[in-house]
UniProtKB/TrEMBL annotation:
The lineage of its organism: Eukaryota, Fungi, Dikarya, Ascomycota, Pezizomycotina. PROSITE patterns: USP_3. It comes from Metarhizium acridum (strain CQMa 102). Forms a heterotrimer with an asymmetric homodimer of the regulatory subunit PAN3 to form the poly(A)-nuclease (PAN) deadenylation complex. The gene is PAN2. It catalyses: Exonucleolytic cleavage of poly(A) to 5'-AMP. This is PAN2-PAN3 deadenylation complex catalytic subunit PAN2.
């Protein structure tokens, strides 16, 4: 066993007061974010110690001394959480309080708080329990108790693992679900009580007491182990000295450390208990007797005797003049002066003086609390689109939006990365939500380029920068799109989702996009959770570690997903086998620090890469000659290299940071030679020299981009010129800060900062693959999914659609299809009330696609659906939105649904195939449908009746139900919505639009529509006396000779009789029509 123990430091624990006796430590915990050890005592005081020398760092009171000892301490990235018997206190690591909750007014309900644990929301929420019948859930960001949960058990210890492991006062351990807090499993660990417990990964270890002769408590001479994966207890591990305390090793997954009350320590492997190491810690206590106290000398009292020579007596009671022992918010951050301002001041006898250039009046006090918040908040959020529309309608002069043209922190020529503080363009960006949702946010304010950014209000959006790098790597993009064009329908195929995302980013042409479907597939992948790649799973890893793990995972899945589907052409098979696209290779780890001797030669990127790839590793192995275990050195032999290099960095020391911050250290090109199992790497002049000689077969790689760690966030710097159809001839580096995209110089992109900007993932691609964008996948698009009913409805009587005929109905660029979707809510919005009483949306409502209906838009079967799919939703549904969607629980429950529930991937692929066939999507208010579907349809392929019947001067868009009532004399959506009915109605409205346009009365009709709408408040009158009931979509007629529901075709400008589904050549759109 490699684990060992050695004493590093020993200090006396500070007493609670100057003249008080030392007290024992009641609880302690190691800080997982800083090099600190946190301790608590019997008087409510928390003390931290820094480093291996245990220097005192901070000390503060968490609660009153009369409230007893500190029960437990937890830490997160924002501070430290302290639990007392009646208090929960959160403070910064420097000591200032963040919030404090006291439960004096609930003493009848909460007898005594004993323990707490993080929940499923990671380090943002805790659950608190104790010797009472109710548990509390506390939001750490708000400092409020958000939920009370009744419990039959009284808990004394809690530890967070895969479940919340809670020890009761009678020796039982309950495994609680971290979401619902229900008891999943109970384990009787000890007969009397549990003294200590720890949980990590798949194991729970406990030590406790049993009742022996005379009804006395004695420590059990063994360690109990419970296997969470198998949900069963393992054989106890003997510990004759009496197991008093136990901890799991933080890195060695199966190693446990057991300590007795006498200081005997065992480091034992739970899977092999016979290999324990035994150590003895010096825990002998001793008494130190004070020397006899000398009496104070007699004071000779005279009128000149100073009063401070008279000592004060010691009081046990609090004096009336004492400060109240309350947690108070005192002090404010100091004023931060600009270095240039300080440099301009001139010294004088009384201090420094100079011109007041700070923007404040003389002697004006500055509110540093609010100024620091605004200074660190990043870019100021722009006005909502609805506000801009109202302002532009009121103003006579049209501004064309130039006034809002990013008040540019982007137009400076200096290198922002060299600044000591994080520049504005690198700071975290946030989405603000109005009552109209995320669609009202002006993403264009942050992005004036033709490259699309990605939204951030989605789980696991930390992967945005990595996805952008892969999108601008032509080899990965071509591979993903070619695979997506095949007949693959696997629900967890990440390569297909990458292809869908890359196609969306290309078509968006600078508009905002979101990786919702890909990230949901990642969340549902069975291997992602155990690898610690999901933000929703509490694993304690930083985003930097998660991103590097995600890089390895995606490269592995790209290869396996591609191999799972037979290639559609021999060319792709040849390319895969000869070029070895993205074969899993050892990731290069930059772990070689530069030399400290100044005379040593300069360490280059190529040298570090070579040493990382070829570095030797040592391990224990069996030697046949010696017949024993020996240390074996292993060195890699390199035979070939992949076409794409994704390199994970390991910047762990200050020397590493200094190396990366050297100007020009990361080259834009490297050359690699692989000969006779050896790996050689060159850059700069050495690379040019080898290319001129032409002796060796050298492969040149171009730098594609870097995913950079910016103070806990991940951003991307990408050279987009390599992904253009034609090489632009100059570098085009761009910063991708989620949805903030801007052009930067090469020096800006390749400059790193030791304090706040370090690379996490670096990507290279072979130079000969630059600018080779393969578009042949569109010609090889597999359309079989449109002509096969892969999940036929077992009840044919309720079938509402008829699939396309492959002989007569071939969708193409002239094909019009009517689309409508229904969706349900899988997460309610998070709304908070500010100090002004205004409601502010913190996180918007999240929808999931529940039903998709696509109707033929032309031909003999116009109005007949060929897609009417209900989607199987994996996430818990919080609201079916039945009054708006027509979806009920019976529709989506696979046990009782009368519909065939399809995976989202299959439904999405049908729409994606129609999109890339060039079909024109018709509907009413399609923007929201496209957002929930997570697809981008170019404007040239969209016919939205909400825009066709719209007057910009009125600032109001008309509902489908009102237009149907006024123009078609039809009553729809009487009680609920039906997607087939809505798509057919939109199709009829489009025909009406063409009629008005051909007759030249469109403008007049729009004025009449708005005039009539104003009279009825733009709502169609309801016939309430008829008692309308909810109706399902009418099934298709059983008799094939009976035509399905259709809209009459105008022979003047519509389809000729007998024309097929894609026969757009037989009808002519009206003058000015968007189809012209």
């Amino acid at each position: 066993m490699d684990g060992d123990w050695d004493e590093v430091a020993r200090i006396p624990f500070p007493p609670p007061g100057v003249h008080a006796m030392p007290t024992p430590v009641t609880t302690m915990t190691f800080d997982t974010f800083q090099e600190l050890l946190w301790t608590g005592n019997d008087y409510g005081r928390v003390t931290s110690f820094l480093g291996s020398e245990l220097q005192r760092y901070t000390s503060f009171k968490a609660h009153l001394s009369t409230d007893g000892a500190v029960r437990q301490i937890l830490v997160n990235d924002k501070g430290v959480i302290v639990l007392g018997s009646k208090d929960v206190h959160m403070a910064q690591r420097r000591g200032p309080p963040i919030w404090h909750i006291k439960y004096d007014y609930l003493t009848a309900l909460y007898a005594e708080l004993r323990c707490m644990s993080f929940t499923s929301k990671g380090t943002a929420e805790i659950i608190v329990a104790g010797l009472q019948d109710t548990m509390l859930v506390i939001d750490l960001n708000k400092g409020e108790a958000v939920k009370q949960i009744a419990t039959e058990h009284q808990y004394s210890i809690m530890k967070r693992g895969k479940y919340i492991c809670a020890a009761t006062k009678n020796g039982t351990v309950n495994l609680l679900d971290p979401v619902s807090f229900a008891v999943v499993k109970s384990w009787n660990a000890h007969s009397a009580l549990i003294n200590d417990m720890d949980a990590q990964h798949d194991f729970i270890v406990t030590c406790g007491y049993s009742l022996r002769q005379g009804q006395t408590y004695m420590l059990d001479p063994f360690l109990n182990v419970f296997d969470i994966k198998k949900m069963s207890s393992m054989p106890p591990i003997p510990f004759p000295a009496g197991a008093a305390y136990v901890r799991m090793h933080p890195r060695m997954l199966t190693t446990s450390i057991v300590v007795s009350q006498s200081g005997q320590m065992h480091v034992v492997d739970l899977m092999n208990p016979n290999t324990s190491n035994v150590r003895q810690a010096n825990v002998l206590t001793y008494l130190k007797f004070a020397s006899p106290e000398e009496h104070a000398p007699q004071i000779e009292w005279t009128p000149e005797t100073p009063l401070n020579s008279v000592g004060l007596p010691y009081y046990r009671d609090v004096l009336a003049s004492a400060w109240p022992d309350l947690v108070s918010d005192v002090g404010a951050p100091p004023i931060r002066f600009d270095p240039q301002f300080l440099a301009s001041l001139k010294p004088a006898e009384f201090g420094l003086y100079g011109r007041n250039t700070r923007g404040f009046r003389r002697n004006q006090a500055e509110d540093t609390r609010n100024s620091h918040k605004s200074a660190n908040s990043g870019l100021k959020a722009p006005k909502f689109l609805s506000e801009k529309a109202r302002e532009s309608a009121k103003s006579d002069s049209r501004t064309d939006g130039k006034a809002d043209d990013v008040s540019s922190p982007v137009g400076e020529n200096e290198i922002e990365s060299e600044k000591s503080d994080v520049p504005v363009m690198y700071r975290n960006v946030e989405i603000k939500y109005s009552k109209f949702g995320v669609d009202d946010f002006d993403f264009g304010f942050y992005n004036k380029t033709r490259y699309s950014g990605l939204e951030i209000h989605i789980s696991n959006s930390y992967a945005n920068s990595l996805l952008q790098i892969m999108h601008f790597t032509p080899l990965i993009r071509n591979l993903a799109l070619q695979h997506a064009a095949t007949a693959c329908v696997s629900e967890i195929c990440l390569l297909c989702e990458l292809g869908f995302l890359f196609d969306m980013l290309q078509k968006a042409d600078g508009s905002i996009c979101q990786a919702t479907n890909l990230l949901r597939t990642l969340s549902s992948h069975p291997q992602a959770g155990p690898l610690g790649l999901l933000e929703e799973d509490p694993h304690g890893s930083s985003l930097n570690v998660m991103l590097q793990g995600l890089t390895r995972f995606l490269l592995d899945k790209i290869v396996s997903d591609y191999k799972s589907m037979s290639p559609t052409s021999s060319a792709m098979e040849q390319a895969l086998t000869t070029r070895r696209f993205l074969q899993p290779q050892q990731q290069a780890l930059f772990d070689k620090p530069p030399g400290r001797n100044a005379k040593m030669p300069r360490v280059t990127f190529s040298q570090v890469l070579k040493s990382s790839v070829e570095r030797e590793t040592t391990s224990k192995g069996w030697c046949r000659l010696c017949s024993r275990y020996q240390t074996i050195a292993t060195k890699k032999t390199i035979h070939n290299i992949p076409a794409v290099l994704m390199l994970n960095t390991a910047i762990t020391k200050h020397d590493h940071r200094m190396l990366w911050s050297t100007p020009g250290w990361l080259p834009e090109e490297i050359g690699i030679i692989v000969e006779q199992g050896q790996f050689f790497c060159y850059e700069g002049e050495d690379l040019k020299l080898h290319l001129q000689r032409g002796i060796h077969n050298i492969t040149v790689y171009s730098l594609i981009g870097m995913a950079t760690n910016i103070e806990g966030g991940i951003e991307g710097g990408i050279e987009v010129a390599h992904a253009e159809q034609e090489a632009p001839g100059q570098s085009q580096w761009h910063l991708f800060n989620d949805f903030l995209v801007r052009s930067v110089s090469t020096d800006e992109a390749l400059t790193f900062n030791t304090s706040w900007k370090v690379p996490s993932v670096v990507s290279f691609q072979i130079k000969e693959a630059n600018n080779k964008i393969d578009s042949t996948w569109k010609d090889q698009l597999d359309t079989s999914i449109l002509y096969h009913d892969l999940y036929p409805n077992p009840n044919s009587e309720t079938k509402t659609y008829h699939i396309l005929d492959p002989k007569t109905e071939r969708p193409g660029p002239d094909t019009i299809i009517a689309l409508d979707t229904e969706f349900v809510a899988i997460r309610q919005p998070e709304i908070e009330m500010n100090s002004d009483g205004e409601r502010e949306t913190i996180r918007p409502i999240v929808y999931a696609l529940a039903r998709t209906s696509v109707v033929r838009g032309q031909g003999e079967n116009e109005g007949l659906p060929f897609i009417d799919d209900y989607i199987s939703i994996q996430e818990p549904i919080v609201d079916y939105l039945t009054s708006y969607s027509g979806i009920t629980r019976e529709d989506l429950d696979p046990r009782i649904s009368k519909h065939s529930l399809l995976p989202l991937k299959m439904v999405y692929k049908k729409l994606w195939v129609l999109l890339n066939l060039g079909c024109k999507f018709l509907g009413h208010g399609l923007k929201q449908d496209f957002r929930v579907i997570n697809i981008h349809v170019p404007k040239s392929q969209v016919i939205d009746t909400i825009d066709l019947f719209f007057l910009k001067s009125r600032l109001r868009k008309l509902s489908l139900a009102f237009l149907a009532w006024y123009l078609l004399k039809e009553d729809i959506q009487m009680e609920t919505h039906d997607s087939i009915e809505d798509s057919r109605t939109a199709l009829k409205l489009y025909r009406k639009y063409l009629e008005f346009e051909d007759a030249g009365i469109l403008e007049t009709m729009l004025q009449d529509i708005y005039r009539a709408g104003r009279d009825v408040n733009f709502k169609p009158p309801r016939k309430d006396d008829l008692g309308v009931q909810r109706t399902d979509t009418p099934p298709l007629p059983v008799d094939a000779s009976t035509p399905g529901p259709s809209t009459p075709v105008r022979k003047i400008i519509g389809m000729a009789p007998g024309s097929g589904f894609g026969g757009g050549s037989s009808w002519t759109p009206g003058k000015g029509s968007p189809l012209r």
